[in-house]
Amino acid sequence: MGQPLGWGRRNLMVRPDHYRIDYVINPYMSTQDQPDPKLATKQWESLRQAIVDAGGTVEVLDQRPDSPDMVYAMNVGLATADGRAMLSHMRFEPRRKESLSAADWFTTNGFTLGRTGTDGVGPHFESGDAFVFGDALVVGYGHRSEALALKHLATEWNIRVRGLRIAHEGMYHLDLPFCPVDSTHAMVYPPAFGAASRGRLEQIVPEPIVLTDEEAFAFSGNSVVVGETILMPDCSPRLREILTGLGLRVVVLDLSEFHKGGGSARCMTNPLDFDLSGIGVAGGEVILPD
Description:
Layout: E1 10-13, H1 37-53, E2 57-60, E3 77-79, E4 84-87, H2 98-108, E5 112-115, E6 130-133, E7 136-141, H3 147-157, E8 160-165, E9 178-180, E10 185-188, H4 195-204, E11 207-210, H5 213-216, E12 224-226, E13 229-232, H6 237-245, E14 249-252, H7 256-259, E15 270-271, E16 285-287
Parallel strand pairs: 1-2, 4-5, 7-8, 8-16, 10-11, 13-14
Antiparallel strand pairs: 1-15, 3-4, 6-7, 9-10, 12-13
């Protein structure tokens, strides 16, 4: 059995004051299926409270009126416990204004900023594609983040980066098919990745919990771990048995209004305490599957 994750207790969320579907940038979105504002706020608050009840903290970044997807706070930037933040450089232009507010919040709260690009110039990087796990920062690339961004992360922060190429359009960010659970276990959905990356999964994750199609598309991989509690939008009896067997307390929350935009618990929550101390490499190192 692995040790509890060394991150996930300090979190950033964006209240859904302006959450709506104005455009379509993933297979789950439809402008004809708008979220209910009152229900969305209720579901958001239930997630925030569950994090606090599990022993975590939540800080709130105000949502821009012109950025309806900003509620998916996982993608505003990649933050570390030692006060660094790499802003996301969004692939889709309608989401790029989010970084303006995120930059102000990070600097006001003492973070030193980095960027892989801005205003469409430079490699795209979206922080929902990145998790510290094992001996590296694991970064998904292909749909939203570009492979060149991995080199930028590695060299600017002097860390080891392991890349996984995402091939499935329904799993467009790493936080959908890859969920660290403890120091050795992660929920993974292999069909999300290219063939070479699927082969790399067993090297990256010593003890994978392989999701079924049904579990993956119920957003089970888009869960949040806070200490010894896992907050999930859906949990099959099979997954519950596995996770409780690892000593985790499973809490299932209704986050269905946020599934309309293509995200769930993890997308809505940005950990501010990723620990890079165990993945440092002088000059940086990037390991790609192919």
